[in-house]
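Please fill in the sequence for the structure shown.

STRUCTURE ENCODING:
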């Protein structure tokens, strides 16, 4: 399933600008130790992901282990909306049923201008990249279980929307140099820009449903151990179609050395809920968001995000081309 080639570290999601424990302000570290009731004697930063924030597994003096993430004021972290994202994650994580394979939120608070979340520590690692067959199969099976546990959504959350709005392809049409970011696909995109725009315009309707979806599943948001699969980082959760996470996830799998999306999606149990036209519309929205995002300057503190987005966008466009050319778009 995996071609076995060396993977660009950025595409492996290991190029984040994490804040190590020693660089967290002393008052914030003291607050964490006070809340936990014991000193921190060890801290292991988790490098996967892109947030310019603390993400560390902490070893405590009483031998407990916890996972703590925290982010300073947006003006200092360089991540616009970063603190609001952490607050959303705290609200959603606290409300997730125990049947969902996600780490339990122990506590959240704010101190020294930081938003801090403390989770149960999960023994495990992110999936090996390029993707390995057995690990991908386990994640795909866990998606089925998670979708069932979250249908209908057990918590209140916004309806799924097209990431960043639904006018990306029209904007890209006015920027021919942006289409050149899709080598091998640029002619097809230019010839089908009206179709892409029409599909994207209906993407929010196509994504409708009553399942709580993670909406940001990638290898760096998955933790595996020998027995279990855990989905972490839930700030973007939305209520939508039961197959939404599967559709959003598979372009990242292809980008990171796994199989092509069309080889996986229609064989998956969740695909029985999907209409090809709806999948095409959702893909058009996702691809437009990723490709358009890749044309923008990198956000402060996250210098590698745009390359990551472009690679996902390229795979989403390839999948969409296969669907529209292969008869699955109707």
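FILLED IN BY: designer on duty
SEQUENCE:
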């Amino acid at each position: 399933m995996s071609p076995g080639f060396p993977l660009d570290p950025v595409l492996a999601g290991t190029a984040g600008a994490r804040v190590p424990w020693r660089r967290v302000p002393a008052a914030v570290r003291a607050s964490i130790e006070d809340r936990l009731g014991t000193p921190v004697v060890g801290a292991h930063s988790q490098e996967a992901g892109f947030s310019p924030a603390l993400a560390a597994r902490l070893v405590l003096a009483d031998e407990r282990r916890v996972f703590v993430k925290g982010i300073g004021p947006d003006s200092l972290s360089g991540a616009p909306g970063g603190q609001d994202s952490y607050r959303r994650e705290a609200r959603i994580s606290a409300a997730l049923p125990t049947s969902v394979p996600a780490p339990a939120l122990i506590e959240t608070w704010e101190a020294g201008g930081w938003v801090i979340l403390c989770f149960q520590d999960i023994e495990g690692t992110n999936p090996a990249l390029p993707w390995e067959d057995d690990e991908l199969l386990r994640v795909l099976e866990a998606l089925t279980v998670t979708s069932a546990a979250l249908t209908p959504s057990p918590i209140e959350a916004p309806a799924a929307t097209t990431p960043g709005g639904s006018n990306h392809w029209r904007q890209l049409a006015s920027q021919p140099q942006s289409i050149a970011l899709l080598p091998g696909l640029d002619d097809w995109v230019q010839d089908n820009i009206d179709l892409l725009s029409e599909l994207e315009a209906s993407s929010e309707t196509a994504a409708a449903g009553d399942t709580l979806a993670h909406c940001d599943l990638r290898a760096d948001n998955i933790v595996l151990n020998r027995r279990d699969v855990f989905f972490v980082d839930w700030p973007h959760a939305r209520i939508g179609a039961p197959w939404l996470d599967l559709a959003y996830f598979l372009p990242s799998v292809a980008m990171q050395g796994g199989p092509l999306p069309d080889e996986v999606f229609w064989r998956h149990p969740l695909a029985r809920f999907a209409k090809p036209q709806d999948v095409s519309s959702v893909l058009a929205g996702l691809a437009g968001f990723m490709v358009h995002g890749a044309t923008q300057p990198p956000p402060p503190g996250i210098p590698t995000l745009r390359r990551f987005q472009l690679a996902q966008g390229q795979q989403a466009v390839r999948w969409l081309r296969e669907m529209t050319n292969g008869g699955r778009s109707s």
